[in-house]
Amino acid sequence: MKNTTKGNILKTIAIVIDVGAPLTATLTQFPVWIDRSSEATFSGIFLLFAFISCLPFLKYIKAYFRSPAVWVVWLVLFVFLFALSNIINEMLIVCFVGLIANCIGAILYKIGKTISMKP
């Protein structure tokens, strides 16, 4: 097997881990088939509108971070959601899984890139 093929396989595995783990955590924490109370729905709607209200602030965040690694984004989300844990406990688990999965995925992707560059 060529190094390019090995590298591409590792990069593909890294992307599957990056996407699959947070998606699986989301599906386990927010199953579609469970009925929620009106209070939980209100909290989710509030969170959505609070996020939309803060969209203009994203320009400043974007300028500050320039191009952060994905694990930084997951870390920021984890800390933000930990502060709001009484509203959305389930999202803490999703973001933590995303943080860990993306760290592992970044390492695997870097290894795959290094291997595929070898002659």
Task: Summarize the topology.
Elements lengths: L2 H27 L8 H16 L4 H8 L4 H14 L5 H29 L2
How would you describe what is shown here?
This protein has 119 residues and is mostly helical. The radius of gyration is 18 Å and the shape is globular. The chain starts with a helix and ends with a helix. The protein is built from five helices and no strands. The model has no long low-confidence stretch (mean pLDDT 76).
Q: Helix- and strand-based class?
A: mainly alpha
Shape: globular
Distance from first to last alpha carbon? 12 Å
Characterize the main sheet: none
Query: Helices and strands, in N-to-C order?
Result: HHHHH
Contiguous runs where pLDDT drops below 50 for at least 5 residues: none
* Residue share in β-strands: under 5%
Mean pLDDT: 76
Radius of gyration computed on alpha carbons: 18 Å
Helix content: over 70%
The total strand number stands at 0
Count the helices. How many?
5
